[in-house]
């Protein structure tokens, strides 16, 4: 065989192989590589979107936490105000109750003093009658001298 003919045949086989590869092997291979590149690009884009969504979600979470914190502070302030109001109401109620009890006790004491004065007047009148009996050495009729005894009671 001739070296030149072998070279031409090998060149022909190479070109046929190259044409076959370009026609049947290269396009599916390029499609597979393009699809792979597209999947990688989509994955990177999805990762970027996920990162952006995560940052947005984190901002929303921080805003919700701040809102919840503010709401909690408002509720604490309201609870403290309500507690102060309840304490003030209890103080007012207690003061009114104390005033009522003192008034009742004072009225009761005045009634007892009045009753004691009445009893004392009766006892003084009785003693005065007994004293007058002793002085006069005779019996004084209390019913006959009722006007005099009533006048004596009012003077005492």
From TrEMBL:
One term under GO cellular component: endomembrane system
Keywords for this protein: ATP synthesis, Cell membrane, CF(0), Coiled coil, Hydrogen ion transport, Ion transport, Membrane, Transmembrane, Transmembrane helix, Transport
Transmembrane intervals: 6-26
Main localization (coarse): membrane
Protein location: Cell membrane; Endomembrane system
Membrane topology classification: Single-pass membrane protein
InterPro entries: ATP_synth_B-like_membr_sf, ATP_synth_b/b'su_bac/chlpt, ATP_synth_F0_bsu_bac, ATP_synthase_B_chain
CDD domains according to UniProt: ATP-synt_Fo_b (cd06503)
Domain of life of the organism encoding this protein: Bacteria
Coiled-coil region list: 99-126
Gene Ontology molecular function terms on file: proton-transporting ATP synthase activity, rotational mechanism; proton-transporting ATPase activity, rotational mechanism
UniProt cross-references to Pfam families, sorted A to Z: ATP-synt_B
Protein task: Component of the F(0) channel, it forms part of the peripheral stalk, linking F(1) to F(0). The b'-subunit is a diverged and duplicated form of b found in plants and photosynthetic bacteria.
Family affiliation: Belongs to the ATPase B chain family.
Subunit structure: F-type ATPases have 2 components, F(1) - the catalytic core - and F(0) - the membrane proton channel. F(1) has five subunits: alpha(3), beta(3), gamma(1), delta(1), epsilon(1). F(0) has three main subunits: a(1), b(2) and c(10-14). The alpha and beta chains form an alternating ring which encloses part of the gamma chain. F(1) is attached to F(0) by a central stalk formed by the gamma and epsilon chains, while a peripheral stalk is formed by the delta and b chains. F-type ATPases have 2 components, F(1) - the catalytic core - and F(0) - the membrane proton channel. F(1) has five subunits: alpha(3), beta(3), gamma(1), delta(1), epsilon(1). F(0) has four main subunits: a(1), b(2) and c(10-14). The alpha and beta chains form an alternating ring which encloses part of the gamma chain. F(1) is attached to F(0) by a central stalk formed by the gamma and epsilon chains, while a peripheral stalk is formed by the delta and b chains.
Protein name per the record: ATP synthase subunit b
Species of origin: Undibacterium rugosum
Gene: atpF
């Amino acid at each position: 065989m001739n070296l030149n003919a072998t070279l031409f045949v090998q060149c022909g086989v190479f070109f046929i192989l190259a044409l076959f590869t370009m026609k049947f092997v290269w396009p599916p291979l390029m499609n597979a590589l393009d699809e792979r590149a597209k999947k990688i690009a989509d994955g990177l884009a999805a990762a970027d979107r996920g990162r952006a969504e995560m940052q947005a979600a984190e901002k929303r979470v921080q805003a919700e936490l701040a809102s919840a914190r503010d709401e909690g502070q408002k509720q604490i302030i309201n609870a403290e105000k309500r507690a102060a109001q309840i304490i003030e109401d209890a103080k007012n109620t207690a003061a009114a109750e104390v005033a009522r009890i003192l008034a009742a006790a004072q009225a009761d004491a005045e009634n007892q003093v009045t009753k004691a004065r009445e009893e004392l007047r009766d006892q003084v009148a009785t003693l005065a009658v007994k004293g007058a009996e002793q002085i006069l050495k005779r019996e004084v009729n209390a019913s006959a001298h009722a006007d005099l005894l009533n006048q004596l009671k009012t003077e005492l």
